[in-house]
Amino acid sequence: MPKLALILIIILFTASTQADTYRWVNEDGVVTYSQTPPPEGHAEKVKTRNTTSSDSAESGEKLKQLQQKLADMDEDRALQKAEREEQAKDKAMREGNCQAARHNLEQLTALGNRLYKVGDDYLRLSEEERQARMQEAREQIKEYCK
Asked: Pairing mode, if any, of strands 31-34 and 21-25?
């Protein structure tokens, strides 16, 4: 949408018609410029610079440059959006892993030498295995709970 608006503005600006400009001085000495001559009296036609008479190749090149700039800006915005989404996914994953590690440590600490459910199976851990898993859960907490 912004591209279309910019192109329309450029077209309207370059397609504006060249109107004559008149200059006259009234009886009080006030100088007036207008696109219409005075209703009575003499007016001098003033030459104005025609901005629409620029080289069409130059105008086309400027338009291409503007279009490229807009395309680059759109691409930058898309990349920034993708990066923000990736960061949000990463944050959600880290939070989930953090909660799981805290839960595992809590269970291993509180339950002692009871049966633990691992997947669909239940098993009883030796004290060494339990301590190793507790250490692993602490390391996961350090990694994910920042």
From this structure: antiparallel
